[in-house]
Write a structure and sequence with these properties.
Elements: H1 23-40, H2 43-57, E1 66-68, E2 71-76, E3 85-89, H3 91-94, E4 102-106, H4 107-114, E5 118-125, E6 131-138, E7 144-150, E8 155-156, E9 162-166, E10 168-174, E11 177-182, E12 197-202, E13 211-215, E14 222-228, E15 235-241, E16 247-253, E17 262-264, E18 271-274, E19 279-284, E20 288-290, E21 293-295, E22 300-304, H5 305-309, E23 316-319, E24 325-333, E25 336-343, E26 346-355, E27 358-363, E28 372-377, E29 390-396, E30 399-406, E31 413-417, E32 427-435, E33 441-449, E34 460-463, H6 478-483, E35 490-494, H7 504-508, H8 516-531, E36 540-545, H9 547-558, E37 565-569, H10 588-591, H11 597-603, H12 608-611, E38 621-626, H13 635-646, E39 651-656, H14 667-684
Parallel strand pairs: 34-35, 34-36, 36-37, 37-38, 38-39
Antiparallel strand pairs: 1-2, 2-3, 3-4, 5-6, 6-7, 7-8, 7-9, 10-11, 11-12, 12-13, 14-15, 15-16, 16-17, 18-19, 19-22, 20-21, 22-23, 24-25, 25-26, 26-27, 28-29, 29-30, 30-31, 32-33, 33-35
């Protein structure tokens, strides 16, 4: 018999904890924070906090940059500037050991002047590069305030564009015109809390008077848009996001036979697209058959955009995936299309070039084999024939991050290298496989000292995510290396289904009524870690955040005997009410709709808040959240801890009041959350 849907909260005794700033709820939070601090904050916590701050504030970190016009822009936080500096330099200066930075905006000084806890959320340069639209977030929220900034004067424009706080997307059309999507008020907001209208705003006129040029239905997730200002290819694209995975896509071209018309692209609803120049590039999430042509899921195919709009469908296959080789992204350059691939979860960059014989693939030279490698355009937005340079980022578990510049010829030119943050002596990286209940091999990475030598089981952290086609790939373990690996402990990262490590099918295998598959895969990895002698259940902890928080919440309630501790960050846990809380409705395509009885029937089977029962013995759990998280509601974490404590379970809670969903509004907040988590693990599995 299907249980009734409790989405209205009528039988939820802890509904009051969803009142984010409610007096009773805040009092409960403060008491819980003190209880956790009393339990975990000791000399070890303080040492870890200081170690993380040293790593995050180090002067020799890589200042990551993006190029616009003649300048490279960077946002930098350190001990003297905890909220950060927005600054710029030239490429020639950046190549030196000590670049000459021109500071444009000091966020700490701004906060002092205005008495507001702003966090920098990005900036978009104007077409002539003299102005910028600066996004400011209050303490890390997704909602932002946008202000026009004069770059030469280093000040906000007194009578310039200003968009009040909301979940906002904005783009320059020309120096005096913007496209604005802002969820400000019911007329402009979807039920999921995102913008439903796009307005064309002309300088000197009120935003409220700006004409709506595109809109979607209230029940849609959102409207997204992009402006292409590349000379000769100017135009706009609009996405009507039906849900988190399905969209209707429209284009408006300024040039060519379809100039001035808004046309819907006749494509499958689940698809990635790009149209930087002449070609339309697509990558469908499921196989797409066009007559005799089959475009496999996860492939890349190309066709001239104007010909497609005129009815042609003779796509050329640029790249076809294999069972272990999956597309992550692509970047168009003058040299060809650069694909970012995963080959058995190892990064690859290849250049695809068209010839009379078809598309040929050439690996980019001089790149390591066992690492994550990403590529981004390095300027070139003003180039009619696409840019020539790419900025590459290379990282690995025990390999400090490096960046390099590739101009299409020869090996990339090294630019910057990050420092070593932990002692790599004896550190090994292995890729292993567990076997899921249905026989599928689930890869996972194992990182630790002297893994090849058999020894006693060691304290181990198992990390996972398993959702939204997000891939977990090697990256330098600066903090975990210092606080965990240096002590001889072990870290594992599971590439479970629900992610994108093996293309769209890997994601589709764990969605909605099969969402539990990701959780079962994770449990299979946990069993493998114990069976292989790496650890034991008592010495194994799992960690995950957001969708990964849902994952580890299910480890607590569905697989409690596999773990000695659970570290759960900014989680979803109440799957009956998640659609009622903040951005939750936008994730129905991933999880399902609890208001539909047939979907609630399976949702309740992986809803930790409902699965927790007095009949189980649960391992200790630390659940953390953030009061300014306007993506995943802090009520999930609050209510779960309250219920677990009522059941007599060893549950601990911490809520910060700044940081948003990422928790990284300043380095001290990140250091606090990391040090608290590792203190918890020392008390539970590594004592």
């Amino acid at each position: 018999m299907t249980a009734s849907n409790p989405a209205d909260g009528h039988d939820d005794p802890y509904l009051w904890l969803e009142e984010i700033e409610g007096e009773k709820a805040v009092g409960w939070v403060e008491a819980q924070n003190k209880r956790t601090d009393d339990f975990l904050i000791d000399d070890g916590y303080k040492r870890d906090f200081d170690a993380v701050m040293t790593i995050l504030d180090a002067d020799d970190r890589i200042p990551f940059v993006g190029k616009s016009g003649d300048h490279l822009y960077n946002f930098w936080k350190d001990a003297k500037h905890p909220r950060g500096l927005w600054r710029r330099t030239t490429l020639a200066s950046y190549r030196t050991d000590e670049p000459d930075w021109d500071v444009l905006l000091d966020i700490d000084a701004l906060n002092k002047a205005e008495g507001v806890s702003w966090a920098f959320a990005g900036a978009a340069r104007s077409p002539d590069k003299t102005r910028a639209l600066v996004s400011l977030s209050f303490n890390g929220t997704d909602a932002i305030e946008v202000r026009e900034f004069d770059i030469a004067a280093k000040s906000f424009v007194s009578d310039g564009f200003v968009i009040p706080k909301a979940k906002t997307q904005v783009a320059w059309v020309d120096q005096d015109t913007l496209l604005v999507g802002s969820a400000s008020g019911p007329d402009h907001t979807t039920e999921a809390g995102y913008t439903r209208t796009v307005r064309r705003w002309t300088r000197g006129t009120p935003l409220d008077a700006a004409a709506v040029v595109f809109e979607v239905e209230k029940q849609d997730v959102a409207v997204w848009f992009g402006v292409n200002r590349r000379p000769g290819h100017e135009g706009m694209m609009f996405w009507r996001a039906l849900d988190f995975t399905r969209s209707h896509i429209f284009v408006e071209r300024r040039h060519g036979p379809h100039a001035g018309k808004r046309l819907r692209l006749e494509l499958p609803e689940e698809i990635d697209v790009g149209a930087e120049a002449e070609d339309l590039l697509i990558s469908p999430k499921q196989d797409w058959t066009l007559g005799d042509l089959k475009i496999p899921a996860g492939a890349v195919a190309a066709i001239d955009l104007d010909r497609f709009l005129s009815g042609a469908r003779d796509f050329e296959i640029v790249f076809a995936p294999t069972p272990t080789r999956a597309l992550q992204s692509w970047t168009e350059t003058r040299h060809g299309i650069v694909l970012e691939l995963l080959d058995n979860v190892r990064g690859r960059l290849v250049l695809m070039q068209k010839s009379e014989a078809g598309w040929t693939e050439t690996p980019l030279p001089g790149l390591p084999d066992n690492a994550s490698i990403s590529a981004q355009s390095f300027g070139g937005e003003d180039d009619p024939d696409l840019g020539t340079e790419l900025l590459l980022t290379v990282t690995g578990f025990d390999r400090p991050t490096t960046t390099a510049l590739w101009d299409g010829h020869g090996a990339p030119e090294p630019l910057k290298s990050a420092p070593r943050n932990f002692d790599p002596e004896g550190i090994e990286v292995q890729q292993r496989h567990a076997v899921a209940e249905d026989g599928t091999k689930i890869p996972y990475f194992l990182i630790g000292k002297n893994l090849s030598a058999k020894g006693a089981p060691r304290p181990t952290i198992l990390y996972g995510y398993g959702g939204f086609e997000v891939s977990l790939t090697p990256s330098y373990m600066a903090i975990a290396g210092k606080l965990w690996l240096e002590h001889g402990h072990v870290y594992a990262i599971a590439n479970i289904r629900g992610g994108g490590e093996f293309g769209p099918s890997w994601h589709l295998a764990s969605r909605k009524n099969t969402k539990h598959v990701a959780h079962d895969d994770f449990a299979a990895v946990a069993r493998d870690l114990a069976a292989s002698g790496v650890t034991t259940a008592a010495k194994l902890a799992c960690h995950g955040g957001s969708n990964g928080g849902l994952l580890v919440g299910n480890m607590l309630t569905r697989y409690p005997r596999l773990f000695g501790a659970i570290w759960c960050s900014v989680p979803l846990l109440d799957m009956s009410r998640y659609t009622k809380l903040l951005a939750g409705q936008s994730w129905i395509a991933e999880y399902g709709d609890p208001e539909i009885p047939d979907e609630w029937a399976y949702l309740q089977k992986f809803s930790p808040y409902h699965l927790a029962t007095a009949s189980q013995n649960y391992p200790p759990i630390l659940i953390t959240t953030n009061r300014t998280d306007d993506r995943v509601h802090p009520g999930h974490a609050r209510k779960m801890v309250a219920k677990l404590q009522e059941l007599g379970c060893p549950a601990w809670f911490n809520e910060t009041v700044a940081g948003g969903h990422s928790g990284a509004v300043d380095n001290s907040k990140q250091a606090q959350s990391q040090a608290l988590g590792y203190a918890f693990l020392r008390r539970t599995i590594a004592s």
